[in-house]
Write a structure and sequence with these properties.
The complex is a heterodimer of chains A (113) and B (114). Chain A has no helices and 11 strands. In chain B, strands 1, 3, 4, 8, 9 and 10 form a 6-stranded mixed β-sheet that branches. Chain B has a 4-stranded antiparallel β-sheet with strand order 2-7-6-5, with no helix packed on it. Classes of the chains: A mainly beta (113), B mainly beta (114).
């Protein structure tokens, strides 16, 4: 079974631009979560989607948004990029069971200059 | 803010020895915990999980111990190998049912000396 796939692997953007990251979950997984990883803050929860609905959201500004499609694929968008948005963005999927661990992709490395 | 674990220490062990990685969590109501391994350039990889109604769970070469009294979690790796070198994170589930978010510790770097 293929793992979580994230595209692109690397992105370089300029301050003020926007970016869209894509995630394909493990087949059959309906829950998709996004995390931001930085050296200073570690792994921080962004949001979680299930059946195209956002069920949970972390403490990030409204510039960070996401969505999920009917095939469970998900995208996240960051508008008006700031230097501090440079990070590894990780997508994870689960089968949404009570004791279901998250399975992560290898992330998208975003650099904002 | 919320936190599981406070530091990013480094644990250096000799190949073949056992490794013990520790983690403190903050929410006594948490009911599910997970250990992840992250190698350079990759996302976190699931290792083992444990529910709060258990004290111990074993996998292949790994054991997780949960002490709810002192809110402490540990990961034991038997016969540590060079391929075990990575950053290890504990994570605590926060939320109801399947709609949850994970609160991650800051991680421990494991270095295996040949």
């Amino acid at each position: 079974k293929a793992g979580v796939t994230q595209t692109p692997r690397y992105l370089i953007k300029t301050r003020g631009q926007q970016v869209t990251l894509s995630c394909s979950p493990i087949s059959g997984h309906r829950s998709v979560s996004w995390y931001q990883q930085t050296p200073g803050q570690g792994l921080q929860f962004l949001f979680e989607y299930f059946s195209e609905t956002q069920r949970n959201k972390g403490n990030f500004p409204g510039r960070f948004s996401g969505r999920q499609f009917s095939n469970s694929r998900s995208e996240m968008n960051v508008s008006t990029l700031e230097l501090g948005d440079s990070a590894l963005y990780l997508c994870a999927s689960s089968n949404a069971g009570f004791d279901s661990p998250l399975h992560f992709g290898n992330g998208t490395r975003l650099t904002v200059t | 803010g919320e936190s599981v674990g406070l530091h990013l220490p480094t644990l250096s062990v000799q190949e073949g020895d056992n490794s013990i990685i520790n983690c403190a969590y903050s929410n006594s109501a948490s009911d599910y915990f997970i250990w992840y391994k992250q190698e350079s350039g990759k996302g976190p990889q699931f290792i083992i999980d444990i529910r709060s109604n258990m004290d111990k769970r074993q996998g292949q070469r790994v054991t997780v111990l949960l002490n709810k009294t002192v809110k402490h979690l540990s990961l034991q790796i038997a016969a540590t190998q060079p391929g075990d070198s990575a950053v290890y994170f504990c994570a605590e589930k926060k939320g109801m049912d399947s709609s949850y978010k994970l609160i991650f510790g800051s991680g421990t770097r494991l270095l295996v000396r040949p």
